[in-house]
């Protein structure tokens, strides 16, 4: 029988590798193994029970029973005045101050002519306008109901979430910078 020199070398190398690997797993890690054993002696795993699942309750959406806020027919009835309720007069000519939001208009003073008190309004276009009781201003059909030294009171007609027209009162106070002059 012939034994090759290459096969003897490979057998010898495998024997050395096995012996050296066996040495790694000897007594060197015994302290680690004993610590692991001591640490795990008193431990007992306990998993808490899962909470009881609540049954699923579906939600039924019933918006079809509600009125459509975007339906144009309801708003058209109110604008025409056939709804029997409050509605702004859309047939009258608009005044210049109705082109601006009320928040952009500033009361800067008053002007008295005889028994009539006019309010002086500074508009965003840079011009000064006079208003009196019965004048319109703002984009919510606001009609001036009273002009006083420090404020102008208005009655506005606005549309609520249901499409109905409602009245609200508001006022425009004298600009603080003008009061100090």
Mind explaining what this structure looks like?
It is a single chain. The chain is α+β, with helices and mostly antiparallel strands and about 180 residues long. The chain has a domain at about 95-175: SH3 type barrels (Roll), CATH 2.30.30.830. Helices cover about 25% and strands about 25% of the residues. The chain has four helices and seven strands. The chain has helices at about 5-25, 30-40, 70-80, 175-180; strands at about 105-115, 115-120, 130, 135, 140-145, 150-160, 165-175. The strands form two sheets. A four-stranded antiparallel sheet has the order 4-5-6-7, with no helix packed on it. The protein is elongated, with a radius of gyration of 45 Å.
Write the layout of secondary structure elements.
Layout: H1 5-24, H2 30-39, H3 72-80, E1 106-113, E2 116-122, E3 128-131, E4 136-137, E5 142-147, E6 151-159, E7 165-173, H4 176-179
Antiparallel strand pairs: 1-2, 2-3, 4-5, 5-6, 6-7
């Amino acid at each position: 029988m012939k034994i090759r020199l290459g096969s003897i070398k490979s057998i010898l190398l495998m024997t050395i590798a096995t012996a050296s690997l066996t040495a790694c797993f000897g007594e060197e890690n015994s302290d680690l193994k004993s610590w692991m054993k001591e640490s795990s002696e008193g431990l007992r795993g306990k998993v808490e029970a899962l909470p009881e699942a609540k049954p699923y309750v579906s939600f039924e959406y019933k918006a079809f029973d509600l009125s459509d806020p975007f339906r144009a027919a309801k708003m058209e009835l109110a604008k025409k005045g056939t709804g029997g309720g409050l509605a702004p007069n859309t047939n009258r000519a608009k005044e210049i101050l109705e082109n601006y939001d009320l928040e952009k208009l500033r009361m800067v003073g008053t002007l008295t002519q005889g028994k009539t008190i006019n309010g002086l309004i500074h508009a965003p276009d840079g011009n000064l306008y006079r208003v009196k009781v019965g004048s319109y201003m703002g984009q919510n059909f606001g009609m001036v109901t009273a002009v006083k030294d420090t404020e102008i009171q208005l009655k506005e007609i606005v549309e609520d979430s249901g499409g109905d027209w409602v009245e609200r009162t508001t006022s425009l106070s004298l600009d603080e910078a003008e009061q100090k002059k």
